[in-house]
Amino acid sequence: MKRRISSTTLADLQKGESRTVLSVRGEGRVTRRLMEMGVIPGVSVQMVKAAPFGDPLEIRVRGYNLALRRNEAETVEVEGGSAR
Amino acid sequence: MKDTATKLLTIALAGNPNAGKTTLFNSLTGLNQKVANYPGVTVERKEGFWDLGGESATLIDLPGLYSLDATSLDEEIAQKIITGDLDGVPKPDVIVSVVDATNLERNLYLTAQLLEYGIPVVVALTMIDVFEKQKHQIDIDKLSECLGVPVVPVNAKSDRGKDELAEIVRELAITRRPARYQWNGDADGDNAKIFSRYNFISGAVQESVRHNDKREHRLSERIDRVLTHKVFGLAILVLVLLTVFQAIFSWATLPMDLLEQGFGAIGDGVRAALPEGILADLIVDGIIAGVGGVLVFLPQILLLFLFISILEDTGYLARAAFLLDKLMSRVGLHGKAFLPLMSSFACAIPGIMATRTIENRRDRFTTILIAPFMSCSARLPVYTLMIGAFFTGQTVFGFVSVGAVLMLAMYTLGIVVALIVAFVLKRTLLKAPPPPFIMELPPYRMPSMRTVLQNMLTRAWLFVKRAGTVILAISIILWALMYFPRSEPAAAPPALTQAEAAVDPATGRPGDAAVELAIPESEQLRNSFAGKLGHAIEPVISPLGFDWKIGVALIASFAAREVLVSTLSIIYNVGRDENEESETLISAIRHAKDDRGRIVWTPLTALTLMVFFVLAMQCMSTVAIVRRETNSWPWTLFMVGYMTGLAYLASFVTYQGGRLLGFE
Asked: What is the ipTM of this complex?
């Protein structure tokens, strides 16, 4: 199982919802690029919307809008219990 | 100061994509710039001359970067330039870090990294007018103090800050005062470094910026409520793509026809001025026709790049990729591959050049390798001729014309094969996980007309310069193949005398001799190297139902697909100026017999030829541009090989399958 049931990820957020990032799991270039783009623990992220076919997602972080795929968003753990 | 005046300073311009770097570069250098590639890679090398007032500098426009960690080719090159490790590029004396004020934190991340190299850095703050209009406040002096480097607000449109920036750069180049902030070095690992840089930035931004927290200024998100809407967004995207498609498909025809006629007229003029003979033939049929064949693509390339520049600079291209990524990623392509593929329906050349917007090399190569399967406008004359000759007046279900069905089938065949090939390539030769899609959706902005036009002209010039030379060379080779060896006049003396006699003595030009001339011309082609090649490949192509004459036409149409029509005209003796709707040509094709006296063309042969043209790589201009864009002959030859192989296979299946089913 990639995702523990107890944790909430960026991909779980509802439209308009904001949370603080707890950790960015995963390794490699994709994760590093995500962090260089400013998605690191402590920063606040907001879900803007999903693309028409449900993927990718658009989020707002550090005052700008970033698109990322759902499976990439799933590696970003955010605070708070179940968002669903 | 005087002793440095003789030496040209080297200044590097670094910044995030969309930070306004290109606009600033254009404003600082004017038209004093040149664009090329860095040796061995397809990363664009852009340099300009910057007059600093008393000093002169070479301004290097680094590729748009988010970071310098060498995770992409662009970043690797940029890093090498900054450390002075790239051959032929001097280590920069000063770095100008372009920072978008409306996106301060993320833009400063790159600045923080630049500070670690010990080269003097100055921050050029762009979009400051937009930032202040949004009622945010920024204390420039404070920001400069926190970062430890000079910060200069600039506005490329009003030239604000241009002189101040030049002055500071000049000063820094002399004092070589390195940035005050130095990396403390005790952060272990990449992640820790990323945290430390962002900590440093957050501190500086907190000290110097007061944000207006109201959300009302987020105009872009309001626009996106429509443009990335589930229904309207997709509808608008289709409209935008249709407009682009329409432009390169139909608006470009008029200038293209004019260019073609113009080159035809030049050719006639030159032929009239020169004595008849090999020199006139080489210049007219080889060189002028070759140059014309290159330049005829310019209107499409200019138009497509006009649209791409506008779409890119407004920020819409990123939205289009966002909307389509899910669909494209099913076959392993990036969302950004959509526009290049779409453009390839008009012509694969601008389409392949448009793949430069795709950063990842493997995704870009996959897109390049499948782009020529989209049925381009040069295939239309071939389809039209075949349908006109064998499928007119027939209908299915009583009202749908067979011609329309076949036309649609050819387009569909190209698309389906392209998707299958992409799917296979992404799992084999260009194996890679689905391309990551971490992409900024920049705020919508009015594009700067100057940047758009400059971008468009640069691309067009690159095409003429690089692809042009290869296309010209191949044109001359193909011409020579059809021209040599010269048929002995003795072989057809009556025809030749007749042709000579037909030259109007009053004007010295051939009068009504075209028809008579066609006879030795077809004879010439038959005995030329191309004719011999046609004979040589006959055993290979006869399982497809093609005789050696079609073989010659296939060889000749490597120059460009539509050349098939004029070659068939020559070879069937109907004069070279017949077009694809010509009744004479159609009738000649219908009644053509092979050397054993059998009818060559059947509807099945025509269909087989169409299938072959959908899939085969028969366009030297595309080959030239693929060579340039991939910077690799192996990949280019691989493309030619696999496409031709697929074309042969599919044609074989069509012809032999058709025969098995009882068609002739």
From this structure: 0.90
